[in-house]
Design brief:
Length: 196
């Protein structure tokens, strides 16, 4: 063993014996953060509107306030905040604090998808493939799956592989299907032991 090995071991043991930093209860910080987020959100800052909505949505200061969260998600999404648009899509798709409305969900997912949200691209592709709230269109679904797949959304990569394997919405292409299957495996999906 070298001196560097023992020195590194001593440093690691020293760090393990230190108390954890920032042991302030979250509630002490959330109130102050929320007041600043409210000011910035009311001034029109989309990121602050989204963060305030998340705090209200998750109940960071008590019980969740879904109506308040939806108000600020909507404000941020209308300014192009993709995560807020995605969350608005979820709210309408699942009927969280509002009546379930697939058409409205698809509209919000589309707004977020166009702003670059991979998860929104995937959810929109699913809705288009199934005809939920929009006209069923396998080719358009494949286009949205491709965008989401390129953004690293593993389920989109798998669905795109299946579409290439079946020729659904795309030209039948076993090579593309295998490529996307291998990419999903590389990204952490279950190994493809029976696929050659």
């Amino acid at each position: 063993f070298t001196f560097n090995y023992f020195a590194a071991l001593i440093v690691i043991i020293g760090f393990l014996s230190l108390p954890a930093a920032a042991q302030v209860p979250p509630a002490d910080n959330f109130g102050q953060a929320m007041s600043w987020y409210v000011k910035a959100a009311e001034a029109g800052d989309a990121k602050a509107q989204y963060l305030l909505a998340r705090m209200l949505d998750t109940g960071a200061r008590g019980a969740p306030d879904l109506a308040g969260a939806a108000k600020w998600y909507r404000a941020a999404a209308l300014q192009g905040h993709s995560e807020a648009g995605f969350r608005m899509g979820e709210i309408y798709y699942r009927g969280i604090g509002v009546a379930r409305d697939y058409t409205e969900a698809a509209a919000w997912y589309q707004r977020a998808a166009r702003a670059g949200s991979g998860p929104a691209q995937f959810n929109l592709a699913l809705m288009v493939e199934r005809g939920q709230g929009v006209e069923r269109d396998a080719k358009l679904a494949a286009d949205w799956y491709l965008r989401a797949a390129n953004a690293g959304v593993v389920p989109a990569q798998l669905n795109l592989a299946l579409m290439y394997a079946a020729g659904n919405g795309v030209t039948l292409n076993p090579v593309q299907a295998m490529m996307w299957l291998r990419i999903t495996e590389h990204m952490g999906a279950a190994p493809l032991t029976n696929v050659k």
